[in-house]
Amino acid sequence: MVKILKIILILFSVVNFLIFTAYIYINIPYSIDKTVLIQKGKSIKEISVILEKEGVIKDRNIFLIYSLFKGKPLRAGYYRFSGNYSIKDVWDVLYKGKEQIYPFTIIPGDDLFDIGKKLEDEGFIAKDVFLNYVFNIENVKKFGLEGESFEGYFPPETYLLSKCSDAEYIVKAFVKEFRKKYLPLKKDFENKGIPFYKGMIIASIVEKESPIDEEKPIIAGIIIKRLQKGMLLQVDPTVIYSLKIEGKWDGKLGGDIMRFESPYNTYINKGLPPTPISSFSLESLEAVLNYRQTDYLYYFSPDGKSHIFSKTYREHLRKLKKYR
Description:
This protein is mainly α. It is 48% helix and 10% strand. It has three domains: 22-96, Dna Ligase, domain 1 (2-Layer Sandwich), CATH 3.30.1490; 101-181, no CATH class; 184-323, no CATH class.
């Protein structure tokens, strides 16, 4: 009798093991299409509850037991589940960190404030958290970069980012692109006698001044020539940037605001701003490296796009009068 009971218990254990194994390896009987957020700090038990609630798994207890048996941590992130999955499939996705990534685009001329707003609007990170990180000089030093902020170090590009990431993760993605595409030009700048960071600042001004690649070397040349002559640059975007830093930009320029006290305001300070004032394209940086020497010292845009150039202030005023 005892022998029979032992056999029954063994059979019962085998059946339970087979059922348990089936739960782990057999796909759910329906197709799903879900994006699930697993937040940082969630326990295995909490993760199993989330997955069951979202319909990704049928039995949270089986998932929990399997996870405890595996004894390895699962990663936070946004995960896309599309199709049929077994418990093992779902566990593998979370263990390997195969999270959903999303495109994020920086366009030429975006500054850190623009980038921060877009990151928040698109659900990546809170704007204030991002800005606190990128305007911290200690973080800039940690990356081995020059300057008081990360302005200018985030190239215009479409990046693939996780929506469950911190500021450092995002900054690493942007700076990696900068090191890959822009940093190789540093030696060329130095060979030409232009400090690379100075070239970056000029490139950011050129980017804000003109969208036309053919004009950029001319504008870069004018900026460099005015610097050499000790003239004020008097560039509107530097006023806008100085206002943004103080949280006072309301979309309007003119009048007394043009003399707003700031080291970035090139209407009242000779020389360049302390840092770049925006992101810039590779074409803008190359325009500074290969700037054109002309007799021009002044320019303005009658249409917000192309520019009219002048050699003297009198000529500049005459042309301005014609278009205004």
